[in-house]
Amino acid sequence: LRKRLLAFERLVLPDRLPDIKLQTNALEHELAAAGRYAEVRPLNLDPGLLVLGKFLLATTKDQSHRVYLRDGIFAEVTLRYHAGAFEPWPWTYADYRLPCVHAFLQQAREYYRQRLREEGGE
Fold it and tell me: What percent of the chain is predicted at pLDDT more than 70?
């Protein structure tokens, strides 16, 4: 199992998260349907959205702490940003509790903050 976190240069509005999740679901299904891998689900794409105060993940599974967006997609606040650091919640997945993930998100947050300044949004 390998995990990679990616941050993209282009900023997207939060209302795009359902579209992005539906697109990643389609990519996962396409790869699985090709039948080239032994695993039933050879790829798991979890799109998220980073804003200054939190990191969100998109999901198709409803739980008490998730908010319905649209088209079968929910959002979960996976981490909050408080007192200069990312903090997990009781429901935060173990891999999003790792210091290396927090360091990556901190770096991405600084980039995001700079982009907001450039675009006059902060």
Answer: 98
In this structure, the number of other CB atoms found within 10 A of the CB of residue 79 comes to 24
H helix or E strand, kind and range, residue 39: none
Q: In this structure, which long-range contacts are made by residues 69-76, counting pairs with CB atoms below 8 Å and at least 24 apart in sequence?
A: 69/17, 69/18, 70/18, 71/18, 71/22, 73/17, 73/18, 73/21, 73/22, 75/17, 75/49
- Would you say 65 and 87 are in contact if contact means Cβ atoms under 8 Å apart? no
* This prediction's pTM: 0.90
Give pLDDT, residue 22.
Answer: 98
The pLDDT tens digits of the residues spanning 50-73 come to: 999 999 999 999 999 999 999 999
d(C-alpha 80, C-alpha 22), whole Å: 24
